[in-house]
């Protein structure tokens, strides 16, 4: 066990703990902020319409296209260390949701927020950097497997979205979510990252949460009344 001190400014966490713990602790505060964003609260509280959920799905299309393209490139180069799972791939499900929510011409009607474009741009850098990829994949996939399940229930309850519009939140190739999340955390903990790169991973996960917050802020401007 090492107790090497942390590079200034990157994180205040003791890095002798497993990376998955450091990520959870290091993003606890930003997670709370993301959950408390006006758009998310209004969406979860049933105060918006299906159009707001659709706009969120559109942003997720661009985000996952970039994330999964980066993951595929990293894996093809042999650099993903088992962190890219086919079971997690979201892009086909989002495309199918959008075809249902918008119609067969959905691709021609995608409107991305500037915050989404900035997020996607950051994700393209993940294709050559395990540290960046781990941070962003952790933030999205463990979120989808956790709070995402609550989002699915709420949008179905409040907005009557049928199953064909929320398949993004379904993981048919994963039998039970909890044990899968444990395996994912084990893979994170086994990554060959030294203390400095683990600190950078936690710092980048915070960036990932902030990029998500910026997308929610953009959606809030559009859908949540002042
Ligand atoms: C609707 C808002 C949200 C709710 C209700 C919510 C709820 C939750 C809950 C209950 C957990 C714990 C699950 C468990 O113990 O296994 C969790 C974990 C997590 N959530 Fe969220 N969440 C929300 C938004 C977000 C957002 C916007 C992100 C990031 C984009 C996110 C990322 C994560 C991550 C990465 C974890 C895993 C934490 C860990 O165990 O390391 N969540 N969420």
Summarize the structure in words.
This protein has 226 residues and is an all-alpha fold. It has a single domain (19-223), classed as Heme Oxygenase, Chain A (Up-down Bundle), CATH 1.20.910. It has ten helices and no strands. The longest helix has 29 residues, at 195-223. 35% of the residues are buried. Protoporphyrin IX containing FE binds at residues 23-24, 31, 34-35, 40, 44, 138-140, 142-143, 146-147, 150-151, 181, 209, 212.
Helices and strands in order, then pairings?
Layout: H1 19-26, H2 28-35, H3 38-44, H4 50-76, H5 91-101, H6 114-124, H7 130-145, H8 147-159, H9 177-190, H10 195-223
Helix pairs in contact: 1-10, 2-10, 4-5, 4-6, 4-7, 4-10, 6-10, 7-9, 7-10
The chain binds protoporphyrin IX containing FE (HEM).
CATH superfamily: Heme oxygenase-like
Name the CATH class. Mainly Alpha
Total count of strands: 0
- Helix/strand-derived class? mainly alpha
CATH topology-level fold name: Heme Oxygenase, Chain A
- Which runs of at least 5 residues are low in confidence (pLDDT < 50)? 1-10
GO molecular function, one term: heme oxygenase (decyclizing) activity
Protein name: Biliverdin-producing heme oxygenase
Binding site for heme b: 24, 31, 138, 185
Keywords: Heme, Iron, Metal-binding
């Amino acid at each position: 066990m090492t107790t090497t001190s942390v590079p200034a400014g990157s994180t205040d966490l003791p890095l002798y703990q497993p990376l998955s713990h450091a990520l959870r602790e290091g993003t606890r505060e930003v997670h709370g902020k993301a959950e408390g964003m006006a758009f998310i609260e209004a969406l979860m509280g049933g105060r918006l319409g299906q159009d707001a959920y659709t706009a969120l799905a559109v942003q997720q299309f661009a985000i996952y296209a970039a994330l999964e393209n980066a993951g595929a490139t990293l894996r093809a180069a042999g650099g993903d260390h088992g962190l890219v799972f086919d079971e997690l791939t979201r892009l086909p499900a989002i495309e199918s949701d959008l075809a249902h929510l918008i119609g067969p011409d959905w691709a021609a009607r995608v409107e991305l927020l500037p915050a989404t474009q900035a997020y996607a741009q950051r994700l393209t850098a993940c294709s050559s950097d395990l540290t960046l990829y781990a941070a962003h994949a952790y933030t999205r996939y463990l979120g989808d497997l956790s709070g995402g399940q609550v989002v699915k229930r709420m949008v179905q309850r409040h907005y009557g979205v049928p199953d064909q519009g929320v398949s993004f939140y379904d993981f048919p190739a994963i039998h039970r979510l909890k044990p899968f999340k444990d395996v994912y955390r084990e893979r994170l903990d086994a990554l060959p990252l030294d203390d400095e790169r683990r600190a950078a991973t936690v710092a980048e996960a915070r960036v990932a949460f902030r990029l998500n917050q910026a997308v929610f802020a953009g959606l809030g401007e559009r859908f949540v009344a002042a």
